[in-house]
Amino acid sequence: MAEENVEAKLKNLLKQEKIQLWNPPYTVEDNQPGAQSMQELAERYAPLLSLSVLEVGGALELIRVQAVKRGKGNKAFRETSVATLELLLPRDTKKDPKMKSYLETRLDVQVQQVVDRIGEEYGLKHIKLILNGRTLSADQQLDEQGVKNHSKMMVLKVSDAEQMTKDEEDRKNQNESVQRTQKGFQILSERDGSEDPDTTPYLEIADQKGNPLKIPHQEKKALILAMGFHEKGRSLMKRKQYDNALCHLLQADQQFSKCGSALLSSVDNYAVLQLDIVWCYRALEALSCLDDSRSRLQRAEECFLRCYGEQQQRLLTIQGSTGREEVLFLRLYLLQCLLSYIEGNDSQARLQLSKVESLYGRLCLDSEKMAQLMALGFTEREARLGLRACQGDLQEAAIQISNRRQERQELMQREQQKRKTRMEAISTLAKLGYSRRDAARALHHANGNLDKAYTILLDSSQAAQATNNNTEGMISPEKVEQLLYLGFERESSEAALQLTDGNVQAATQLLLDNQGVLSPDLLSPPSTSTSTSSSPSSEEPSTSSSSPEENELVNEVLEDIPRHEEDYLDLTLEEESELIATMKTYLNREPTHTV
Fold first, then answer.
1. In which band, very low, low, confident or very high, does the pLDDT at 110 lie, cut at 50, 70 and 90?
2. Higher-pLDDT residue of 60, 189
3. Residue 263 domain flag
């Protein structure tokens, strides 16, 4: 970290004086350093940085070598189209942390080819390539995904096969983990809470008070996937598996991009995700992803401002306090301090560190007060969050925790009653001959009103019957014979013609798409399974029953969902304390003797 700080400061000085180290007199024949000119430059800059001439000379030489290499890379790229990419390797792979790693390749090759080369050269298995915070797709070309000459690519190790048995490797393989997480949360995103809550878990998206939010179905699906990947990533962060965690967090970021800005401004999840991604960069010592880190922290700060209001006034109105959320700002300011230092801006880093230390002092808790609250039967999390919310006041914290418990209990009871009422309404409609799926859709359109839902189903049933009567004339024996001649079964042929309004060509394509066998849903006549719409709508919930495999997947991903909605605020601040101490050491270093 100190090396990056010195390098950034020297680059700023060189830029101000328009000095080009790759040109004479600093670089001479055969790209060798101009010894005298480089020495004079080191002697001139050393006092400005309060460092020794030797230290400054070494840093200047590293910058010069990089500049020469970049110039050669530009020339090679112009002449041969071979690009030079900088690789940010996992820290335990680097032989010399100060030496940068490069890869020369054409950009019109598939990412998988590059992955194989890197794996072979550095002895790595199961890796992903990250560019500007995006995971590169293995089956696409580098240039198709924005990779350019001199791009920096982060190499992320997603499992260490050498230290695992084959079974463990299969189970823990990161690709499988991401796929299972996605599938599990996709199942949950389709559920609307109308089935038995004891056997069929589902997810509800709530505001900062825990009240459910009404969100369009498609956007809700993306948000549940985003939050699911985020929680899985956070679970892996707690276990210090930062490589794997980052993969899941970047998947969450991708899903959040599908949500509308209005939705993102009403929940703080997106801002917290940006912080978590940069926290992983820090843990993986990959802060050379500076541009991406800086923009993510800026997005987090802007999102907190929209979500919490100026001076956190909106949060104060909703929650009654801001103490719990202050841990997020502590992490934000701490990461901003770290980036400022790496960029060589010591004065800005000191200002931010001062703000961090002040906030840290307020958030550190009295262990005796924690013990007293836990003796009253409160959990460690409740005690920590309660004391922070009440600025360390023991009595106020006890009252606040009790009130929060009661609020959560009342909210849970209201939601259970709402689900019970909905299930009863679906059962009532099902007794009248409608499918549970159609009953749930109708209730969704009727905002839970049973009479309105029945009217919707009745109207739809009559419309479907009229359509069915009109369609019968379109299905002539000649058309059925045409499909039979092509080798399809009679029942499937008749159903396909009915579904395509008697269009032989469309019916043929439908049968081909389904290998000649239409699903039971398509084959069942409209009169026995009335739908509120002619085709399944992406805006409507599904109430299809769950298979054992689906339930296994769902239960697996639910293990990573914390039982407490404020788990993301329950930070012990141990890691933050270590980073604060590190920053103080770097920023308070005594000046080195310069001669």
1. very high
2. 60
3. no
Residues 51 and 121 in one domain: no
Which CATH number goes with the domain that contains 131? 3.10.20.90
Which pTM was predicted?
Answer: 0.72
Report the 10 Å Cβ neighbour count for 319.
17
CA distances from 502 to 214, 474, 497 (A): 40, 5, 5
What is each CA distance from 477 to 480, 483, 490, in whole angstroms? Answer: 5, 10, 10
Would you say residue 69 lies in a domain? Answer: yes
pLDDT recorded at residue 542:
43
Looking at the structure, tell me whether residues 1 and 73 fall in a common domain: yes
One-letter amino acid for residue 587 of the chain = L
**Residue 245: other Cβ atoms inside 10 A:** 24
**pLDDT tier, 356 (very low <50, low <70, confident <90, very high otherwise):** very high
Any domain includes 114: yes
Q: What are the tens digits of pLDDT across the range 166-175?
A: 444 544 455 6
Is the Cβ–Cβ distance between 484 and 560 less than 8 Å?
Answer: no
Domain count, the chain: 2
Task: Give per-residue burial for 98-121: e unless 16+ CB within 10 Å, then b.
Answer: eebbeeebebeebbeebbeebeee
Boundary of a domain, candidates 78, 103, 129: 78
* Same domain assignment for residues 49 and 101: no
Q: Which of 44-58, 405-419, 549-563 has the highest mean pLDDT?
A: 44-58
Burial of residue 189 (CB within 10 Å: 0-12, 13-18, 19+) is: buried
- Strand order across the beta sheet in which 127-131 lies: 101-106, 82-88, 152-157, 127-131, 134-135
CA–CA distance, 436 with 430 (Å, rounded to integer): 6
Q: Do 23 and 95 sit in the same domain of this protein?
A: no
Spatial distance between the Cα atoms of 564 and 376, rounded to a whole number of angstroms: 19
Give the domain range for residue 6.
1-78
* Residue 575 or residue 168, greater confidence: 575
What tokens does 585 get?
A: 């050491």
Q: What is the pLDDT of residues 281-325, one digit of tens each?
A: 999 887 667 788 999 999 999 988 887 876 666 665 655 555 678
Query: Is 112 found in the same domain as 43?
Result: no
Q: What angle do CA 353, 359, 362 make, to 5 degrees?
A: 145
Domain boundary among 49, 78, 107: 78
